[in-house]
Write a structure and sequence with these properties.
two-stranded antiparallel sheet; 6 helices; 111 residues; 2 domains; elongated; alpha+beta; 13% strand
């Protein structure tokens, strides 16, 4: 049996096709948590090569003093919310896609 995978026509056994469907169903079941602890977030980010100091350095670059202080306070909150302005800011600063941020939240909740 042939199946289109990443734009290529690939010969697959019935078993391979069944496993691929199971894997797709499992992937669809992964839920992105609404929140994680700051510690979980920092550990997940470290695994992605982003250190706490790198984040602090980016915060220090914010010119507006009030905005800089608010961002610092949000960074230091004990709970990080997936839909927060701080998370959106961090994703922009480190060129992370929404999918990458979701992945970090999924990873973090398991730590």
């Amino acid at each position: 049996m042939q199946k289109m995978v990443d734009g290529l026509l690939v010969e697959m056994s019935e078993e391979d096709l069944a496993q691929m469907e199971i894997d797709a169903e499992r992937a669809a079941l992964v839920l992105v948590p609404d929140s994680i602890s700051r510690t979980q977030g920092l550990i997940a980010l470290l695994g992605a090569g982003i250190t706490e100091q790198m984040i602090r350095d980016r915060i220090a670059l914010i010119e507006n003093e009030t905005e800089r202080e608010v961002t610092r306070l949000r960074f230091e909150q004990q709970t990080w919310l997936r839909g927060s302005d701080f998370i959106a800011w961090g994703a922009e600063q480190f060129a992370l896609t929404a999918e990458q941020v979701d992945g970090l939240f999924v990873t973090a909740v398991g730590l």
